[in-house]
Design a protein that fits this description.
84% of the residues lie in helices and 0% in strands. It is mainly alpha-helical. It is globular, with a radius of gyration of 18 Å.
């Protein structure tokens, strides 16, 4: 059984909540760093922007349904890796959060300068309302698993790493995966429709 009942989901989320707060701090710090890079290191910000633009170009030419599928698969793979690789002492989720926060800060800052804050928000908010929480939950799980691994180095634990990963998989399939799926549809069909006419 890969689904998680409502009561178990609530209990799991309560365990996850402290790590979710840490996740938000790390991601927010990345955004601030991104803003600082734009204002103080324009050459580096241009390089980061070109990297992001190059990644986005990979999705051009796809139909909306294909785009939704590509976005869903990309975000699902990254979130799963953040969870699984969290077992390496939680390092990968931290790097993932910082890198994505910096990229968002750089791209949003540059976009706001060229296209305005409103259009820049339109390109993020509709799908980001679901996508970002889903990613934050995934990285929070990675941090929690990493903390579990570190604690096991110093004292025995009744819960094995396998049991932690199994619980993470059930929560992922029940909560995170549907959020990523809906967010991908919104990004492909709604966000592109809101932003494209103004470009």
């Amino acid at each position: 059984m890969i689904t998680m009942p409502a009561e178990e989901r609530r209990a799991y989320f309560q365990r996850l909540y402290p790590y979710l707060k840490i996740t938000l701090v790390i991601f927010g710090s990345g955004i601030i760093i991104g803003f600082m890079i734009v204002s103080r290191f324009p050459g580096l910000s241009d390089h980061l922007e070109s990297s992001v633009v190059g990644f986005v170009k990979m999705f051009r030419g796809l139909s909306k349904l294909q785009l939704a599928a590509a976005i869903f698969l990309n975000n699902t793979l990254k979130t799963v890796l953040a969870i699984l690789l969290g077992s390496v002492f939680g390092i990968i989720p931290v790097v993932f959060l910082l890198a994505n926060g910096i990229a968002l800060g750089v791209v949003f800052s540059l976009s706001a300068q060229s296209r305005g804050v409103w259009l820049s928000l339109l390109s993020i908010v509709p799908h980001g309302i679901l996508e970002l929480p889903a990613v934050f939950l995934g990285t929070s799980i990675g941090l929690m698993i990493g903390t579990h691994v570190i604690k096991r180095l110093f004292r025995p634990s009744a819960t094995t790493l396998g049991a932690e990963l199994a619980g993470a998989l059930r929560f992922f399939c029940t909560v995170i995966l549907p959020l990523l799926f809906i967010a991908a549809l919104i990004e492909a069909f709604l966000t592109s429709a809101l932003v494209a006419p103004r470009q």
